[in-house]
Amino acid sequence: MAAAGPSVFLLMVNGQVESAQFPEYDDLYCKYCFVYGQDWAPTAGLEEGISQITSKSQDVRRALVWNFPIDVTFKSTNPYGWPQIVLSVYGPDVFGNDVVRGYGAVHVPFSPGRHKRTIPMFVPESTSKLQKFTQVTLWDLPATVFGDTW
Q1: Does 39 score more than 90 pLDDT?
Q2: Which key words tag this protein in UniProt (predicted)?
Q3: How far apart are CA 101 and CA 5, in angstroms?
Q4: What sign does the dihedral 94-27-18-37 (CA atoms) show?
Q5: Is residue 19 within a helix (H) or strand (E), and if so which, with residue range?
Q6: Each residue of 108-134: pLDDT tens digit?
Q7: CA 99 and chain centroid, separation
Q8: What pTM value is reported for the model?
Q9: Nearest 10 degrees: CA dihedral of 79, 47, 92, 56?
């Protein structure tokens, strides 16, 4: 009798990056990717993507609306390293160069069903006064390593 291999389960992620609130910026786009443990593997769909550029809505909220679809399926033998979605939002600086406006991440929900997540965004900040001065004078904003490699 042959030994049975480890059991596998599937995780299907279907949804969208709906919108964002960046009151001080306009004309932004969003990149996403999934990070996960070594026992996880994508089986269908896209692990990463980039949205269109959007402008603020004309309503009171002034939201940046993408309605950017996400559809990916993963398989794994255990829940360790449960997938997270990582978002990066970019937009033009005063010279028209794309610079990071925010990073954020959240775990994919653990339970089935419809879920709505609000992801707090952050921006790397220079650690010394000299770096801050250089940042202001050269328009050289700090960025994380994963943001620079996409």
Answers
A1: yes
A2: Cell projection, Cilium biogenesis/degradation, Cytoplasm, Cytoskeleton
A3: 46
A4: negative
A5: strand 9-20
A6: 999 999 999 999 999 877 777 776 666
A7: 15
A8: 0.81
A9: -80
